[in-house]
Design goal:
The complex is a heterodimer of chains A (about 600) and B (about 500). Chain A has about 600 residues and is mainly alpha-helical. Chain A is built from 35 helices and no strands. Chain A has helices at about 1-5, 15-20, 25-35, 35-55, 65-75, 90-95, 100-115, 120-135, 140-150, 150-155, 160-175, 180-195, 200-215, 220-235, 235-245, 245-250, 255-265, 265-290, 295-305, 305-310, 315-335, 340-350, 350-375, 380-385, 390-395, 400-410, 415-435, 435-450, 455-475, 475-490, 495-510, 515-530, 535-545, 555-565, 575-585. In chain A, α14 crosses α18, α24 (about 380-385) runs parallel beside α27 and α26 runs antiparallel to α27. Chain B has 25 helices and 2 strands. Chain B has helices spanning about 1-10, 15-20, 25-30, 60-75, 90-110, 120-130, 155-170, 175-180, 185-195, 200-215, 220-240, 245-255, 265-275, 285-300, 305-315, 320-335, 340-360, 365-370, 375-385, 385-405, 405-425, 425-465, 470-475, 480-485, 495-505; strands at about 35, 150. The chains are: A mainly alpha (about 600), B mainly alpha (about 500). The interface between A and B is large, with 65 and 68 residues. Chain B: One of its GO terms (molecular function) is protein phosphatase activator activity.
Chain lengths: ~600, ~500
């Protein structure tokens, strides 16, 4: 150990500083990332008096380095001597909070927020709050944007005079000249509102909220929508109508689609925040409009919320509202011109069946499901199929099976392999719900066809799928339906298909059990050991290693061992390697 | 029957597509690309009153022309949905003809721009042009590769832009009257439109904004500030704005007209906006315009050279070779106009970077930087400062001359080495002689670094198990500076650094 040997050349600060100043950025970055080690070597006092001033001065560096520095300083409290010295970290972080690069600045603010908690109330007023003020009054917009994120962490812990100052600063920044600052303020409005006393929420926050929500820049207005959720939660119900709703109504009809999109995106949160009465009177028509919006982006965002919105409707009027107001719009969306809208809807529409119950589902929703199952866009069909379980609980899947089949077949042969992959993944679920006879009759051949797909990922998924099916239907079913087909592929002229046999055996041996493995699979594997393609041979070795534990010791000794020994002397390097590996893993040596 | 139709559909999928699914990106994109897109303004599809043609202006007695002019302007405020190509065909044609007539009217006639017409003119323009741009058809729109979506209503919008341009260029145009209508809000909305994907629209906007900047002195500072904001948002927030190249082009000519000495505001714009703009992803789309702006600044005020070059070096691309080539191009443009005194200030950091570029395994980067030696003026600057530059360049060139995979580069490097040798043969021989020793010293230093860190790590581990380790470390701190002193006269490269660390020691 260095210390024990008394190696005295180790810790002069200049050496460490040189590391932090290395010409190579990568080395500098590495050093900065180990800043805590350096601080540890220096000890708390020299860290405070020498390292931190140095760091404060080197702010002109690559952003990458600054980011690492900003992050490190957030957990530096112990290294400067604990909470009573934590304010030493403020000067470097203050400089970092003013740099141009957003990522660095945000990280500095994050660290400042973190260490603000470690300040005593006195230190907070003496050291931290003045820093926030300086940032808030900075010349360049970067420091002012950073200030926006710091008000809420110091507000609760300072005296009422300082509180008044903080509110004043926040007000000023909300009407800043630079849109970047207004955006920062708008994005922190909700957070700041939460730490304010209710009276100030009403007297200070509401006017700011109203002003930001009618800003000339849509990028500011849309952030006000986010704040709306927090603000509405804070206010008593009777004030919502007068203080929040005019702004929210305006946002839902904003001329910029970005703002309307935001309303649609936050709809469930808004709904919870304003409560059932306002939902009934205001949000229902607003939601209808969003579902019918002229921009597909907005419609898709709203369509995504259909289920949640319906779920959260007040129980007494839920069904009526859905049937008379929501469902007509949903019906139109089923034949929307934009595929993103349709697929957003398809991902939630099945959820409506649990809310509406059996009769309504059969009468009103089923036709929509069927229509979407026939949609031209595969994603829509997939989304329906992936949510079948919701319907299964309410009406059973049989009602759908006639339409399901063509949809599944078509997806199973889709030109895009990712679509094929997705449908394979739903096979075990479908098989479980449709039952073994239906499966054998209609879907089994599909599952086998995937085994010879042109894309490896599909063949792999198909193998895994077989295993899951056997888990569902049992070993006997496997022996009768799957195993013969799989084994017959071992004679295929294409070596990729022959390898698929081996991969299937790898996956199936355990679920099929010792008897089937020994009696049916093992002979095939052993026969393939003399395949002319080396890839097949070394996969035989790998396969034997894999299925070895399922076999009994006599089969291992009498049948597996001789074959592996032959393979271990193969001409091909890889075959040798895997055969030897198998021998040692199965302890046959 | 149903399954039969399925079969037919299946066979339509081509074999190649089934094989890999990785059909070429451009092919896939071409399939789903829709040509045009509408503006996001048709919220309510209320059926419109059909437009009926008004009498021609030129057939009307001049006393009544003004009234008719205003009527026509009002008629042109009706908007149509161009995504729907079958409705309102007659009305669309009436409006198109009227707009054409209006363009003609303001461009050929004198005395038609009476004060009372201004509000109607601006109203017509605002109603037609100022709209929320729709979401991009293609969320990962790549301006370098994809075809842009074109504005569907262009047959009308084009004429409105044309009209606005002719209006501004009319000899009777009165900025003093117009400034009540062409105000900050108007400009702001105009600037928002620069994000349009349609290059035809951005081209009109460029000319129009330039005219407005020229004619409305009161709006100049405002326009600059807003462009500033757009750029900052582009650089630090969204990385997306379609009109950057056009705005830079306008700025290029604005910078040209800046009075000397440059205001702090302008310098700040250069350092805090234009230089960081080099970091954005889509640099290739506007680099020519950006480099032009930067060079304009340096031509105005050569003292900005040092901060600009240092700024570029700070943002030098780490992984994107394409960008690196662009940076090298810009550096050459700067060197073309650099003053020798300024060159001395930046030669050291600059040639450290160039030395790295020369050694780049990407041959275009290496080649681009080696081309500097074909530039007579740069060559003369190098020759003047050969004592400083040769030691910086030698290591890379020497190594590359033996190692680079690309023969063109090797050949270029030989030429460069030859040129440098002719400039100062003695120094060249010394460097050749000490090359090996220098490499060994570097290796040794590297080893020392690793040892240091190993010891520091050990200390950290020790500290976890035994908090006393910290104290030992502190005691040791005060003892010794010998290692630093031994390190100081190490490489010629560390001149600035060692100065700094001395000041640091003094501060102690």
């Amino acid at each position: 150990m260095a210390g024990a040997e008394g190696d005295d050349s180790l810790y002069p600060i200049a050496v460490l500083i040189d590391e932090l100043r290395n010409e190579d950025v990568q080395l500098r970055l590495n050093s900065i990332k180990k800043l805590s080690t350096i601080a540890l070597a220096l000890g708390v006092e020299r860290t405070r008096t020498e390292l931190l001033p140095f760091l404060t001065d080197t702010i002109y560096d690559e952003d990458e380095v600054l980011l690492a520095l900003a992050e490190q300083l957030g957990s530096f409290t112990v290294l400067v001597g604990g909470p009573e010295y934590v304010h030493c970290l403020l000067p470097p972080l203050e400089s970092l909070a003013t740099v141009e690069e957003t990522v660095v600045r945000d990280k500095a603010v994050e660290s400042l927020r973190k260490i603000s908690q470690e300040h005593s109330p006195v230190d907070l007023e003496v050291h931290f709050e003045p820093l926030v003020k300086r940032l808030a009054c900075g010349d360049w917009f970067t420091s002012r944007t950073s200030a926006c994120g710091l008000f809420s962490v110091c507000y609760p812990r300072v005296s009422s005079t300082v509180k008044a100052e903080i509110r004043q600063h926040f007000r000023t920044l909300c009407s800043d000249d630079t849109p970047m600052v207004r955006r920062a303020a708008a994005s922190k409005l909700g957070e700041f509102a939460k730490v304010l006393e209710l009276d100030y929420v009403k007297s200070d926050i509401i006017p700011l909220f109203t002003a930001l929500a009618s800003d000339e820049q849509d990028s500011v207005r849309l952030l006000a929508v986010e704040a709306c959720v927090s603000i509405a939660t804070l206010l008593p119900q009777e004030d919502l109508e007068a203080l929040v709703m005019p702004t929210l109504r305006q946002a839902a009809e904003d001329k910029s689609w970005r703002v309307r999109y935001m309303v649609a995106d936050k709809f469930s949160e808004l709904q919870k925040a304003v409560g059932p009465e306002i939902t009934k009177n205001d949000l229902v028509p607003a939601f209808q409009n969003l579902l019918k919006d002229c921009e597909a982006e907005v419609r898709a965002a709203a369509a995504n919320k259909v289920k949640e919105f319906c779920e959260n409707l007040p129980e007494d009027s839920r069904e009526t509202i859905i049937m008379t107001h929501v469902l007509p719009c949903v019906k139109e969306l089923v034949s929307d011109t934009n595929q993103h809208v349709k697929s957003a809807l398809a991902s939630v529409i099945m959820g409506l069946s649990t809310i509406l119950g059996k009769d309504n589902t059969v009468e009103h929703l089923l036709p929509l499901f069927l229509a979407q199952l026939k949609d031209e866009c595969p994603e829509v069909r997939l989304n329906i199929i992936s949510n079948l379980d919701c319907v299964n609980e309410v009406i059973g899947i049989r009602q759908l099976s006639q339409s399901l089949l063509p949809a599944i077949v078509e997806l199973a042969e889709d030109a895009k392999w990712r679509v094929r992959l997705a449908i394979i993944e739903y096979m075990p679920l479908l098989a479980g719900q449709l039952g073994v006879e239906f499966f054998d009759e209609k879907l089994n051949s599909l599952c086998m066809a995937w085994l010879v797909d042109h894309v490896y990922a599909i063949r792999e998924a198909a193998t895994c799928n077989l295993m899951k099916l056997v888990e569902k239907f049992g070993a006997e079913w496997a022996q009768n339906t799957i195993v013969p087909k799989v084994l017959s592929m071992s004679n295929d002229p294409n070596y990729l298909h022959r390898m698929t046999t081996l991969f299937c055996i790898n996956a199936l041996s355990e679920v099929c059990g010792q008897e089937i493995t020994t009696k049916h699979m093992l002979p095939v594997v052993l026969k393939m050991a003399s395949d002319q393609v080396a890839n097949v041979r070394f996969n035989v070795a790998k396969c034997l290693q894999k299925i070895g534990p399922v076999l009994d010791s006599s089969a291992l000794q009498a049948e597996v061992k001789p074959v592996l020994e032959i393979l271990a002397t193969d001409q091909d390097m890889d075959v040798k390697y895997f055969a030897q590996e198998a021998i040692s893993v199965l302890t046959l040596a | 029957l149903a399954s039969c139709s399925v079969c037919i559909k299946m066979s339509a999928i081509s074999a190649t597509e089934k094989v890999d699914g990785f059909t070429r990106k451009s092919m896939r994109k071409a399939q789903k690309q829709r040509k045009s897109q509408g503006s996001s303004q048709f919220r309510t599809q209320s059926s419109l009153v059909e437009l009926s043609p008004l009498p021609h202006l030129k057939d009307t007695p001049s006393t009544e022309q003004q009234v008719l002019f205003v009527q026509k302007l009002q008629q042109c405020c009706v908007l149509f949905d161009f995504l729907d190509s079958v409705t309102d065909l007659k009305s669309k044609e009436v409006k198109r003809a009227t707009l054409n007539e209006l363009v003609d009217y303001v461009s050929t006639n004198r005395g038609v721009l009476v004060d009372s017409a201004y509000p109607d003119i601006i109203h017509m323009i605002s109603t037609n042009l100022f709209r929320t741009l729709p979401p991009s058809e293609n969320p990962d729109f790549d301006p370098e590769e994809d075809e842009p979506s074109l504005e569907a209503a262009w047959p009308h919008i084009q004429l409105v832009y044309e009209f606005l341009l002719r209006f501004l260029e009319n000899p009777d145009f009165q900025p003093s009257t117009a400034k009540r209508y062409i105000d900050q809000k108007f400009v702001l909305q105009l600037l928002d439109l620069f994000d349009s994907e349609d290059p035809r629209e951005r081209d009109f906007l460029k000319t129009i904004l330039h005219r407005i900047y020229g004619k409305f002195l009161g709006l100049r500072a405002f326009i600059r500030k807003q462009i500033n904001n757009i750029f900052l948002r582009f650089i630090y927030e969204t990385e997306h704005f379609n009109g950057v190249a056009e705005l830079l082009e306008i700025l290029g000519s604005i910078i040209n007209g800046f009075a000397l000495p440059l205001k702090a505001e302008h310098k700040q714009f250069l350092m805090k906006v234009l230089i960081p703009m080099h970091t954005t992803r889509g640099l290739a789309l506007f680099h020519a315009q950006l480099a032009y702006c930067v060079v304009q600044f340096l031509e105005k005020d050569s003292t900005l050279t040092e901060p600009v070059v240092r700024g570029l070096l700070k943002f030098w691309p780490k992984t994107c070779s394409q960008k690196e080539v662009m940076f090298l191009g810009e550096i050459e443009e700067i060197l073309d106009i650099i003053e020798p005194t300024q060159f001395k200030k930046i030669q050291e950091p600059l040639f450290k970077q160039i030395s790295k570029c020369v050694a780049s395994p990407h041959f275009q980067v290496a080649e681009r930087s080696l081309y500097f030696w074909n530039n007579e003026y740069i060559l003369s600057l190098i020759e003047e400062n050969i004592d400083k530059i040769l030691p910086l360049m030698f290591g890379s060139l020497y190594r590359i001359s033996k190692e680079h995979w690309n023969q063109t580069i090797v050949a270029l490097v030989y030429n460069v080495l030859k040129t440098l040798m002719e400039m100062n043969g003695k120094l060249f021989d010394e460097l050749t002689a000490s090359y090996k020793a220098d490499r060994q010293r570097e290796k040794k230093k590297e080893q020392e670094r690793e040892d240091l860190w190993e010891k520091l790590e050990a200390l950290k581990l020790q500290d976890v198990s035994n908090s006393r380790g910290l104290q030992i470390a502190q005691n040791n701190n005060n003892n010794n500076n010998s290692l630093t002193n031994a390190e100081e006269p190490n490489t010629s490269a560390a001149i600035t650094d060692s100065v700094n660390s001395q000041t640091f020691n003094c501060a102690k």
